[in-house]
Amino acid sequence: MRKAIRGWNDLESMTMPTIKDPTYVFQEISRNCKNFKELKIMGHLDKIFAFSLATYLPNLKVLSVRCSMLVKEALIIILDSLKYLEVLNTSHSCFVIPYEEGRYRFISNIDRNTIGEKASRLRQFITCMEKPCIMCQRTRMDCEIAKWYKYEEGNWKDDEVSSLAL
Ligand SMILES: [Zn+2]
């Protein structure tokens, strides 16, 4: 992966599953890909991921975390740290808060006062939490890791952010 990223000097956008510690991936991107601006991840957004993103890719403009489990605190870190972020897509994702070591509890709606206010500076904050759709329900059923790959072929290629749809 590292070697591959070194060869991608023009890399501007990437889609990846969430991995336990993405630090080395983000480090390589920040060293080698000066024009990198869009990231799409799927699976699980936690604090480690958010801190790593804030540290190595603080200039990110577009972030898509659709069909994923989003830890509320991680989202706050992202909204507070990525000063150039313009577009955030959280469609079909479920929001969770930790309640004990390694376990999470769903929160039915995002806290408008914190997330909503912080996201109001963005050009686009995409979410479908108001009226959960079938995709939202699937994410929730799959809980920890949204098994998007087992549904319609090519589902992972979709994105509400047109520049990220493949
Ligand atoms: Zn939805």
List the main descriptive attributes of the protein structure presented here.
single chain, alpha/beta, 5-stranded parallel β-sheet, 4-stranded mixed β-sheet, 6 helices, binds zinc ion
SSE blueprint:
Elements: H1 2-7, E1 13-17, H2 23-32, E2 38-42, E3 44-45, H3 47-56, E4 62-64, E5 69-71, H4 72-81, E6 87-89, E7 94-100, E8 103-107, H5 112-119, E9 124-126, H6 134-142
Parallel strand pairs: 1-2, 2-4, 3-5, 4-6, 5-7, 6-9
Antiparallel strand pairs: 7-8
Helix pairs in contact: 2-3, 3-4, 4-5
Bound molecules: zinc ion.
Structure summarized in a few sentences:
This is FBD domain-containing protein. With 166 residues, the chain is of the alpha/beta class. Helices cover 32% and strands 22% of the residues.
Give a description of the structure.
- With 166 residues, this protein is of the alpha/beta class.
- The protein has 6 helices and 9 strands, in the order H-E-H-E-E-H-E-E-H-E-E-E-H-E-H.
- Strands 1-2-4-6-9 form a 5-stranded parallel beta sheet, with no helix packed on it.
- Helix 3 packs parallel to helix 4 and helix 4 runs parallel beside helix 5.
- It is globular, with a radius of gyration of 15 Å.
Total DSSP E strands: 9
Share in β-strands: 15-25%
Q: Given the C-alpha coordinates, what overall shape results? A: globular
Quickly give the structural class: alpha/beta
Q: What is the succession of H and E elements? A: HEHEEHEEHEEEHEH
Unique ligands: zinc ion
The strand order across the widest sheet is 1-2-4-6-9
Radius of gyration: 15 Å
Q: What helical percentage do the residues reach?
A: 25-40%
Distance between the termini: 21 Å
Low-confidence sequence ranges: 144-148
Number of helices: 6
- Biggest β-sheet strands, sense, barrel: 5 strands, parallel
Mean pLDDT: 84
